[in-house]
Write a structure and sequence with these properties.
The chain folds into six domains: about 160 residues, 2-Layer Sandwich (Uridine Diphospho-n-acetylenolpyruvylglucosamine Reductase, domain 3), CATH 3.30.465; about 120 residues, Alpha-Beta Plaits; about 90 residues, Alpha-Beta Plaits (2-Layer Sandwich), CATH 3.30.70; about 100 residues; about 180 residues, Glutathione S-transferase Yfyf (Class Pi), Chain A, domain 2 (Up-down Bundle); about 120 residues, Rossmann fold, CATH 3.40.50. The longest helix is centred in the middle third of the chain and has 20 residues. Helix 16 runs antiparallel to helix 18 and helix 31 runs parallel beside helix 33. The chain is globular, with a radius of gyration of 29 Å. The strands form six sheets. A seven-stranded antiparallel beta sheet has the order 16-13-15-14-18-19-17, sandwiched between helices. The chain has 42 helices and 27 strands. The protein is an alpha/beta fold.
Length: about 950
């Protein structure tokens, strides 16, 4: 931690340490910059971030904050779209440590959790017991239940399941003075708080008519200080309804007891396509009569963006035939039995037969994989609208307006006309059945005239919502839009809300300036255009830096990289640390600030050091480039940064070795026994570790790659060869071609048995290490040489096949840069080639036994169809192949061999791979060289390339 100029903050932090605070304390510039943004347009840096480990820590920090006059703002997943958890003072982040599921009571139908538990984490825990937590938000992979409580979140299915507050039975909270209290839907056992509750109930009873007049009759409701629902039927104060949606302005949540819902055993999804959005939305009131669990909407812009992303390979089979429509409704039915779901579909069919609104096309599926892919696309709508290839991107400042469903079509038409009047494009998606359609106007926040639109559009949309009996905030909370609260509730009820704030937090210590301020205080509520905006800072980045780091500036903060699931490949370094500075979003923030500082000519040492430290734990696995909806590619920007950084700093000795390691290995592989003896003895291993920080360097294969090709029926390519019938060319890489040549032999033997004339080139240098380490000029030279070789081989007309996923990805991406779009070569993965020529494989009867596919993380995020291709190939030969969901194995090429990363590398292997590898009854297979190397290091059994199983099948059953 750096010394901070704020003396009150310094004394506060000193007091925390002296009084037994057990959590983490961070006040360095990098951490504060990362905490300065969420999924909104704003940038507000805190003075420090606290990561408590227990309720006692929260009590302690709140008590000491009062003593030292420190403001506190709670934070969970950081996915707020309107600056909900952004503030000056100290941020209290519950997501790093307070993420335990404490108790499950199936008899009572409840689960007790800490506030940092992620929604997907909770549902993964509940699923084996037959339950789930019903509020379904699109950010479920990173949204915390504490954050959901703070905004009274809802989402898909809310027409039947309601909001977060409908599923909370009790909460433990800490008041602004540090006093812990427990509250329920029926009151509290705390005498002082109970007295306040009774007084408030009496006041609310006298204002029932005004509440009924002011609060709209919507599924979404006027969340936050829910005066319309806070007074229970029995006259008790429902503290849950009062606190839900208050965005941490009344108390800090430390524990929640949640009501769980039986998991529906059956479901089916119908996608309805319409000529335009207006037709789709006008149909919703009729379709609701079929009583589906959800009706979700998205427009053609969302679908077009999805079609241009890696996820489309999972969707094309379902949506490809209707993808040119103008608007889409996703209508889902759930039930305990197939018959129950079918009954819902029949109700829908009868409504459609009446022809109230013309439907251009429809597709129905009950296939879990298809439904999962469709809902995942809907979840990613937010990010997709920030991935457009223009300077203007979809922004969330008015995106969650809600109106009565019967007014939705008219409302959206007027909304569209309003934005047209401002000459703004937009994309739409949302929860049509409850009248909440997310509309994201497209703005370039680097431009002052576009930043000025925030006020103009927000005021106009607020007026439009009120005219239609709706709300400008229907789902995502208020955040800095709290300035509109008095406009909606009126001065009389606004005064009540200010008195509530004063009862709980008289000094405006909790998330100050949000929603309302305490009665009799001078603090004003924040204004939407007075809070510092991220775009103002981004505008200071010059064009040179903007061009190199544009994807970092495009990061909209949606937080998909904060994915909780250990079996998801997105950002392994974040999973291992739960440190948001070590996630793509945090790194993008630091890239932006570094670019801004260098553009302004300001001292950049502290920012640069924070960025360099963050990038040191990046595995360069490229999962972010495939999975981030905005396509933030941290490894590519890391390479560019390192290239620039080491123009002014001395490189470590290891980098100089790695610069030439690939070329050196091509020489050493020709004397493998001597090389292994020289590198594998204890003294050499010690030198590699101490001098270069390298460990577990692989040994060279004794038989050369070329010999393996020849021994298995292939031939080595030369200039004058006639390639013969059904030729294929193996593009050998420097990894399998030097350290794992048995894979080369296996693939050669497989293709020969399938009737191909197999040719191979000697292993080619690819420059991967140079590219990762930021040796830009060296990589450019190597790319040019290898591209020329690939072009010459491509001229022969035979398909070219690469065996190593990381190299295949390099050839398909970085190698297309600088050699022209539509370059004169295309290198296929083995599974792509075999799947394209599936008819060349013999159709064989089913065989007992099962295989498990562990795909390389770069491969499956860049090309999600790879697993399904392998399944189809295995099925053709009568083999059962199961796709295993895993994250990164922890090797990631160079990363796993670096001594300082040994613990993280092993932790990642244990987190994601160890368990699935040891599952009995199946044989594991891995596509990646680094993955197989990691299993060899840390696993308990050998693992082979998928080609080995295919060749064994053909060998056992010759054709």
């Amino acid at each position: 931690m750096l010394d901070h100029p704020n003396s009150s903050l310094t004394r506060f932090i000193d007091a925390l340490r002296a009084n037994g605070f057990t959590g983490d304390i961070e006040s360095d510039l990098g951490a504060c910059l990362v905490a300065a943004t969420d999924n909104s347009i704003y940038h507000v840096a805190p003075d420090a971030i606290l990561f408590p480990k227990s309720a006692e820590d929260v009590e302690r920090l709140a008590r000491l904050a009062q003593d030292h006059d420190i403001a506190l703002t709670a934070r969970g997943g950081g996915t707020g779209t309107n600056g909900q958890s952004l503030n000056a003072g100290v941020v209290v982040d519950m997501s790093r440590h307070m993420r335990d599921i404490l108790a499950l009571n199936l008899e009572a139908g409840s689960v007790t959790v800490q506030p940092g538990v992620v929604l997907d984490q909770l549902n993964t825990y509940l699923k084996p017991h037959g339950f789930f937590f019903a509020p379904t938000v699109s950010t479920s992979s990173r949204a915390t239940v504490g954050g959901m409580f703070a905004t009274d979140a809802s989402g898909k299915g809310s027409r039947i399941y309601g909001r977060m507050s409908d599923h909370v039975a009790a909460a433990n909270v800490v008041l602004a003075n540090g006093r812990p209290v427990s509250v329920t839907t029926h009151g509290t056992s705390d005498a002082e708080l109970g007295q306040m509750g009774r007084a408030l109930c009496q006041e609310l009873e006298g204002k029932a008519a005004e509440i009924a007049r002011r609060f709209p009759d919507l599924n979404r409701g006027l969340t936050g200080y829910n005066l319309d629902q806070a007074r229970g039927a029995s006259g008790d104060l429902d503290f849950i309804k009062l606190l839900a949606g208050s965005e941490g302005t009344l108390a800090l949540t430390t524990q929640l007891t949640l009501r769980v819902t039986p998991f529906p055993k059956q479901r089916a999804l119908t996608v309805l396509a319409y000529d335009d959005c207006a037709l789709a939305l006008s149909h919703v009131p009729r379709l609701v009569e079929a009583d589906p669990s959800a009706i979700e909407f998205l427009d053609d812009k969302i679908l077009a963006l999805a079609a241009a992303s890696p996820m489309w390979s999972q969707l094309e089979g379902v949506l490809g035939q209707i993808g040119d429509a103008g608007g889409f409704l996703f209508v889902e039915f759930i039930g305990e039995t197939i018959k129950e779901v079918a009954a819902g579909q029949k109700r829908l069919a009868r409504i459609l037969e009446q022809g109230h609104v013309p439907v251009a096309a429809q597709v129905t599926t009950a296939e879990p994989t298809d439904m999962s892919a469709l809902w995942e696309m809907r979840k990613r709508s937010v990010g997709l609208l920030a991935a457009v290839e223009t300077k203007r991107i979809g922004l969330p400042f008015v995106e969650d307006a809600a109106v009565p469903p019967e007014k939705l079509s008219e409302f959206v038409a007027e909304f569209g006309a309003l934005l047209d009047g401002f000459n703004l494009s937009y994309g739409m998606f949302g929860h049509a059945d409850v009248g909440c359609v997310h509309v994201r106007p497209m703005l370039n926040m680097r431009e002052a005239q576009d930043r000025a639109m925030i006020r103009k559009v927000s005021d106009a949309v607020s007026d439009l919502c009120q005219r239609h009996g709706g709300l400008i905030w229907g789902e995502h909370g208020k955040g800095v839009r709290g300035e509109y609260v008095e406009r909606y509730v009126g001065p009389e009820l606004y005064a009540v809300m200010r008195r509530i704030k004063a009862w709980f937090d008289p000094d405006n210590r909790l998330n100050p300036g949000k929603l309302v301020t305490a009665a009799d205080s001078d603090l004003k509520v924040m204004k939407i255009d007075a809070v510092p905006m991220r775009g103002t800072r981004d505008a200071e980045v010059n064009e040179q830096a903007f061009g190199a780091f544009e994807r970092a500036i495009a990061c909209n903060g949606n937080g998909a990289c904060h994915n909780w699931a250990p079996d998801d490949p997105m950002c392994p370094s974040y999973k291992a640390t739960r440190d948001k500075t070590q996630a793509p979003k945090g790194r993008a923030t630091l890239f932006r600030e570094w670019s801004r500082s260098t553009s302004l000519g300001e001292p950049v040492e502290e920012v640069e050091a924070a960025l360099k430290e963050s990038l040191d734990t990046c595995l360069s696995c490229k999962s972010c480039s495939g999975q981030c909806p905005v396509r933030v590619d941290i490894p590519t920007m890391k390479s560019e940064f390192l290239s620039r950084y080491y123009e002014r700093h001395n490189r470590p000795l290891r980098d100089h070795l790695l610069r030439y390691m690939e070329r050196l290995s091509m020489h050493l592989r020709r004397r493998p026994r001597l090389a292994n003896m020289a590198m594998g003895n204890p003294i050499s291993r010690m030198v590699l570790n101490k001098a270069f920080g390298l460990s577990d360097v692989p040994g060279f294969s004794i038989t050369s790659a070329e010999q393996m090709v020849v021994d298995n029926g292939g031939r080595i390519l030369s200039k004058s060869d006639n390639l013969g019938d059904k030729p294929v060319v193996l593009v050998l890489d420097s990894f399998t071609g030097a350290f794992e040549t048995q894979v080369v032999g296996t693939v050669t033997g497989l293709l020969v048995r399938l009737g191909y004339s197999v040719w191979a080139c000697p292993p080619l240098l690819n420059g991967k290490a140079q590219q990762v380490r930021g040796f830009a000029r060296d990589f450019d030279v190597q790319r040019s040489k290898t591209s020329a070789a690939l072009k010459r081989m491509a001229a022969a007309g035979a398909p070219m096949i690469s065996l190593e996923p990381a190299v295949t990805d390099l050839f398909s991406k970085e190698y297309q840069t600088g050699v022209g779009v539509g370059a004169a070569f295309r290198v296929l993965s083995l599974d792509s080639f075999l799947h394209d020529n599936l008819e060349d494989l013999p159709r064989m009867p089913a065989q007992d036994g099962s295989y498990a596919l562990f795909s390389h993380c770069t491969e499956k995020t860049a090309d999600p169809a790879t697993g399904r291709r392998w399944v189809a190939i295995f099925a053709r030969l009568g083999l059962k192949l199961e796709q295993v969901s895993t994250g990164c194995c922890g090797m990631a090429g160079l990363f796993g061999h670096e001594a300082e990363h040994q613990d993280m590398s092993r932790d990642l292997f244990d987190l994601s791979w160890r368990g699935p590898l040891t599952k009995p009854g199946r044989t594991p297979l891995a596509t990646g060289f680094s993955c197989r190397s990691q299993v060899k290091r840390f696993g308990e059994q050998p693992i082979f390339h998928p080609a080995a199983a295919l060749l064994a099948r053909l060998t056992q059953n010759p054709t």
